[in-house]
Design brief:
Elements lengths: L9 H20 L5 H7 L10 H24 L2 H18 L5 H29 L2 H32 L3 H21 L14 H13 L1 H31 L6 H26 L1 H24 L5 H27 L6 H25 L6 H21 L16
Helix pairs in contact: 1-5, 1-6, 1-7, 3-4, 3-5, 3-13, 4-5, 4-7, 5-13, 6-10, 6-12, 9-12, 9-13, 9-14, 10-11, 10-12, 11-12, 11-14
Length: 409
């Protein structure tokens, strides 16, 4: 793990950070077409319980971030990242031979534990190198590449199902993670300077946690991101049922999923172009308001009876387009004031967004009733809660500016 790293260009840096974060999207989205086959093969009685394959991963992923943050603030970014990736690879490979559903869930939990290093380190490295609108721009480009994975992941999962058993999906994940891990091993620089490392002592760790939680603006933006992510997880956990069971798309389900994900990638790219001129707050606040209003429209339409697919996909793609504008800016606004404890901050916000978001998403998924009403209601309610958090963070004013960065933040 001490192999020397070489400086990388900006495009390669963005691609590498996006690839690390994309391993998490892959571990979720590539599963979606295979959930029915996994449930059948491992004798899962209730079809909504198949979603636990996603939930187990997200819980492990979320909780482990609380540990990887302080560890990366103490030992640097490279070593914790590579250790976590080894865990991810081994767990994914073993999941391919899981004999029972309970064993599969345990291995998915462990896979999530390892994956936590990729999110914490990727965001910490970006914060080490950038701040303000430059960080927002880079995060938008990373999110853009990151969003390409949901475009292809379900299709890849479907192709693997056509060519063999669902176990091939886990072998594919292990192989891809190995390739990205080797890329990071040979090409990623250590970005945390020795003089900025924090001791790994209980008092110091507690101090870092207090710094994050006591920063009102940062913490409330983190909570806002958690609520929005909860809606996204709620949809992901029920996507296969909505597209296949309600709308009968069958094998075309990955195409519909890819279409929505592609628009999210487009919105992330658009954000990278406009955030410098308009500022993070203006873009994030406007997009969050639109996200919630559109979710309310979807809920209203769904409550009136069966919602035809053209109407559903039209409104839903607009909602997810707004999500692409909300995600990177909200994350940046949460991280930006906490550069001196970037690893700890990334771990806390990652925990909130993943575990909190997964719990909210699991609640939405578990009340799935054969309609899109639970998902639409969940999006609308969580959007309102996200707006409340932002209003408190900004002392009741939207579209303001940062005291440090002016109109550019």
């Amino acid at each position: 793990m001490s192999a020397p790293a070489r400086s990388v260009s900006r495009p390669e840096f963005i691609a590498m950070m996006a690839a690390l974060m994309a391993l998490n999207a892959l571990a979720i989205d590539i599963m979606l077409p295979a959930l029915p086959k996994m449930g059948e093969a491992l004798h899962v009685a209730h079809e909504n319980e198949r979603q636990f394959v996603l939930t187990a991963y997200l819980i492990g992923f979320g909780f482990a971030q609380l540990f990887f943050g302080p560890i990366s603030d103490r030992f640097g970014r490279r070593k914790p990242l590579l250790a976590g990736m080894v865990v991810y690879i081994i767990a994914a490979a073993l999941a391919a031979i899981a004999p029972t559903f309970e064993t599969l869930l345990a291995l998915r939990f462990i896979q999530g534990l390892g994956a936590a290093s990729t999110r914490v380190v990727a965001q910490s490295v970006v914060r080490d190198k950038f701040d303000g609108r430059a960080m927002a721009e880079v995060m938008s480009l990373i999110f853009m590449v990151f969003m390409v994975v949901p475009v292809f992941a379900p299709s890849v999962g479907q192709l693997l199902l056509f060519s063999g058993h669902w176990q091939l999906i886990f072998m594919f994940m292990a192989g891809l993670a190995l390739a990205i891990g080797l890329w990071a091993f040979f090409r990623m620089d250590e970005t945390l300077k020795p003089e900025k490392r924090r001791p790994l002592r209980a008092a110091v760790i507690a101090e870092g946690f207090v710094l994050v939680v006591s920063n009102k603006s940062a913490f409330l933006y983190g909570l806002s991101a958690m609520f929005v992510m909860g809606g996204l997880f709620g949809f992901i956990s029920t996507a296969q049922q909505i597209y296949v069971d309600i709308y009968g798309l069958g094998a075309y389900f990955p195409l519909a999923f890819a279409f929505v994900a592609a628009l999210m990638a487009v919105s992330s790219f658009l954000n990278s172009r406009i955030v410098g001129a308009l500022g993070m707050r203006r873009v994030a606040h406007a997009a969050l308001l639109a996200f919630t209003a559109l979710s309310g429209i979807l809920f209203l339409l769904a409550s009136m009876g069966h919602l035809p697919f053209p109407a559903f996909i039209t409104v839903f793609t607009m909602i997810m387009f707004m999500f692409g504008l909300v995600g990177s800016n909200t994350t940046t606004l949460a991280m930006e004031p906490l550069g001196n404890v970037a690893g700890t901050a990334s771990s806390i916000f990652g925990f909130l967004q993943t575990v909190g978001g997964a719990a909210l998403g699991a609640a939405i998924g578990y009340v799935y009733d054969g309609t899109v009403v639970p998902v639409a209601a969940g999006f609308f309610a969580l959007g309102l809660l996200a707006i409340v958090c932002v209003l408190i963070a900004e002392n009741g004013k939207l579209f303001g500016v940062s005291a440090k960065y002016g109109a550019n933040a």
